[in-house]
Amino acid sequence: MRIQRIDLVVAAAAVLIAGSPIGVAAEAVKAEQSKVQETKQDIKDGARQAGREVKETAKSAGREVKHAAKETGAGAKKGWHEVKQSAAESWRSVKGFFSRLWNN
To answer: pTM higher than 0.85, yes or no?
Structure first.
């Protein structure tokens, strides 16, 4: 009986010195959980930042398209005006040709 008690005391002392396996495991789980939470937060932050960058890129592209459309519209108006002027001049030229032809 005495040997068993000594073995039990030695085993208990060894457990106390080394730390309880349950306590060590619980601390390891807590450490892993904090790493998981930290990683999840990093992922969320990265996704938010990527979303902001996509939003800014889309806004910039929209401004560029709007600006290009304004320039194209102005160019189209100018082009149409030139076509009208050219047609009017051509008509005056044709009219003058036939007027001179028939009046001579």
So the answer is: no
The total domain count for the chain is: 1
Residue tagged 């009986």 (tokens): 1
* Structure token digits, residue 54: 């996509």
Give the C-alpha separation, 87 to 90, whole Å.
Answer: 5
User: Is pLDDT at 94 greater than 80 in this prediction?
Assistant: yes
Please name which of 20, 24, 23 lies closest in space to residue 11, comparing C-alpha atoms.
20
pLDDT of residue 1: 47
Residue 21's contacts (CB-CB under 8 Å, 6 or more residues apart) are 15
Structural domain harbouring 49: 2-103
